[in-house]
Amino acid sequence: MRRRLSRIVHRTGWVCAGVMLSLSTSAAFFEEWKSGVNWTEPAVITPGDGTAPPSDAVVLFDGGDLEQWNGVKNWTFTEDYAVVGSNISSKEGFGDCQLHLEFATPAEVSGQGQGRGNSGVYLMGRYEVQILDSYENTTYFDGQCASLYKQHPPLVNACRKPGEWQTYDILFTAPRFHADGKLKTPAYVTVLQNGVLVQNHYELQGGTYYENPPSYEAHGLREPLALQFHGNPVRFRNIWIRDLLPVEEQKRDVVAADRGQ
Q: What would you report as the CA-atom Rg of the chain, rounded to the nearest whole angstrom?
């Protein structure tokens, strides 16, 4: 038995060595494949620690005031967060983007269903990622927290308890339209709630509406971000966004703006 094992090990060792020799010899006859694409060198940025913004982000709110927003009234502010008091929209427009924001529904539970901790973040002012207290709170699934309102429920309910801070990290690809206003490519949304994937590159069917089915209406490459006031004192903090619009489209967007289009 020992002799047999010895012969197997001996032979296996020679086989492995032979394979390695064959591979190394063959590699000498092949050149490395390269794509040949003349890529632009990626910009160097400084990542933020934890949920802090990276160096290339636009900070929309980090406590104190909402100078980057229009329509601000009846909001209350502390050094670190603000409590919603009206619908607001960002002064700057955004399209393809990475958005981070933190929110907390009221610690004191009041109401039920859609009347409990209700707010929302509207990408381009049209495509809502729902904010709601969905911790042990039943409502229609495509209207619960982290749903794409009236279009797609979250993959899981990842809500924290009422009053606890929660995070949204949203990746958004804006829709594109032909010159005649017809849809060219739809919008796509990926959402992580509290670090958990809850929307996975979902194809939006159009704007998210309360009273109408989803549909697309032509709009620009960049539109304001909006936060909703739904009568509940939802808190917000640490809102930042990164512009991901491709360079070639940024150039076209600048030319169109110069022409007043």
A: 26
pLDDT greater at residue 132 or residue 25: 132
For the residues 53-76, what does the mean pLDDT come to?
96
Q: What domains does the chain contain, in order, with CATH numbers?
A: 58-258 (2.60.120.560)
List all residues 6 or more positions away from 219 whose beta carbon is below 8 Å from its beta carbon.
124, 126, 177
Give phi and psi for 94, each to the nearest 5: -140, 150
155 pLDDT more than 50: yes
Copy the structure tokens of residue 90.
């960002």
Query: Which residues, 6 or more positions from 81, have their beta carbon under 8 angstroms from its beta carbon?
Result: 63, 104, 235, 236, 237
pLDDT value for 14: 47
At 227, phi and psi to the nearest 5?
Answer: -115, 140
Query: Residue ranges of the alpha helices (H) in the chain?
Result: 2-27, 247-258
Question: What pLDDT, on a 0 to 100 scale, did the predictor assign at position 11?
Answer: 53
Write the CB contacts of 256 (distance below 8 Å, at least 6 apart in sequence): 220
